[in-house]
Amino acid sequence: MESQKRTAKKKKYRANQNQKRKPKNVKQQKNSSSKIKKRRTGKSKKTLMEAKKRRKNRKRKIFLLEFLGAIAITSILVFFMSLFLFSLPKVEGYSMVSTLRDGDRVYVNKIGKLKTFELVYVQIPGTKEKEVRRIIGMPGQRVTYKNDQLQIDGQDREEKFIFDEKQTSQENGRLYTDDFSIFTLTGTSKIPEGKYLLLGDNRPYSVDSRQYGLVDRKDIIGVVEMRILPLHLLQRF
pTM here? Predict the structure, then answer.
């Protein structure tokens, strides 16, 4: 009987101990699970931040590639267009003062229409040089200069683009444009077909058709329509 009582007491004691221990185990389990959750959430936040950074970097790379591609395509298009439609040469020398000065950058329309008094970009005959000059005589026209007065086909024509220079020169007792005619230049009364008389606006010092003769149509690259540089002197002709 005593042994049975002892065993029963032991069982009760063990049961009580187990009941006391159970809450501790539950608390430990809860604490460990919360720690695991925190670790998981911390890891998940890090992975989300890294994924966002990767997406941003990808977007930046894609934008940069698209931007560089657009620049490259635009540059190629401008290059090919410049071969056939326009060019942006720099003025060299002083033959076009005061209309254009040495170092000015101009816009040349390669398909522009040639007219009297238009500025043109031209390949100088017999050289590799390219210069800006002004059309004074067109094919079939009779051109003469007498006492600083231009005559085309027997009619006086006013050159407004050199008005001030002519006036200053005449006040000093000099001609701004020396007397000449198509006949004295070519031995013919009219400008032949396909030929043009080109002069610089700085008449006393310009090298032009008076020195190298009439210019072929094929040597005229295009019409100068605008000065684009320097910006403060931007001007349309």
Answer: 0.70
Residue 24 has pLDDT above 50, yes or no: no
Helix/strand/coil (H/E/C) assignment for every residue in the chain: CHHHHHHHHHHHHHHHHHHHHHHHHHHHHHHHHHHHHHHHHHHHHHHHHHHHHHHHHHHHHHHHHHHHHHHHHHHHHHHHHHHHCEECCECCCCCCCCCCCCCCEEEEECCCCCCCCCEEEEECCCCCCEEEEEEEECCCCCEEEECCEEEECCEEECCHHHHHHHHHHHHCCCCCCCCEEHHHHHCCCCCCCCEEEEECCCCCCCCCHHHHCCEEHHHEEEEEEEEEECHHHCEEC
Summarize pLDDT for 28-80 with one digit per residue, the tens: 554 555 555 555 555 577 677 777 788 888 888 888 888 888 888 887 777 66
